[in-house]
Amino acid sequence: MGNVFQFAWEVELIKGLQELIRSFPFLKYFFSFFTMLGEPVSLVLIVIFFYWCFDKKLGIKIAISILMVNVTNGMIKNIFKRIRPYAVNEQIECIRPAERKYDINDMAKQGFSFPSGHAMCTSNLLTTLYQEKKNRKLLAIGSLIVFLVCLSRVALGVHYPTDVLIGVVFGILPSIVIDKLYGKMEKKHFYLILIVYSCLGFFYCRSNDYYSIVGLIIGFLSGDLFDERYVNFENTTNIWRMFFRIMGGAIIFLSLVNVLKLPFSNEILEAETLFAFMYRVLRYGISTFAIIGLYPILFKYNILRLKEKDAD
Questions:
Q1: Which CATH topology does 7-184 take?
Q2: N or C: which end of the chain has fewer CB within 10 A?
Q3: Tens digits of per-residue pLDDT, 50-100?
Q4: What are the boundaries of each domain within the chain?
Q5: Number of helices and strands (H, E) in the chain?
């Protein structure tokens, strides 16, 4: 299921890069390392570091921008449905699949090829940070990392060069738009617009990753509003608190996502049905709201206790 469109030069470039990997095996680990920098786990760690520890306001902007990029990526992929290069060309090897636990040829699980989510997310993150910091060294180093992430996706056989080139463009544009709109209207109205936009894919998207992202968006935005009204936690510069905040949040999120699976079998949850998709939105929405809206209550409590001790 899907569409095939490719240029001859793209296939030759991928084959050339993979021949280079076969000649110099260490390049497999080199490219795998840089591809990990653009994967969801790495991006989530960056977001929660900024949001919970370093700079809450910047963390919100980064989170919104990356979430919007991811949901846009899912909606575009489900329109073009470009099959990944390794599934079309026998000479191309899938060195690092997007989802290792699923069949590499199942595009509903692996995700379609166009555009590259890694390229979109890393270029988006760089643009957001540069707009905030205006640091040329950051731009230079970040651009090199984005280039290597994009190159890794091609070398590993999971994307065409045009996937990453267009992905960079589609990653930069949302960051600019979010930067222009953020703070220009009441937050709850802005968040409602983002949620409505994110749900447009309900009419045609058939991939799990899209519905997971919608759940993350709803959970994060509602959790941030809850925090602003009822919690309003503060950032911390204490290394150990940073560590425990991030580790605690990760454990709570992963636990909830998996506990919420228990009422149903894997066959039901993995089926491409309306119920499976909506329950995925619910699972990720509840889990994200728990760590963004409720979990920071613990931060607030600790801060207040410290202030009391200082006063004594």
A1: Vanadium-containing Chloroperoxidase; domain 1 (1.20.144)
A2: C
A3: 999 999 999 999 999 999 999 999 999 999 999 999 988 889 998 888 777
A4: 7-184, 187-312
A5: 14, 0
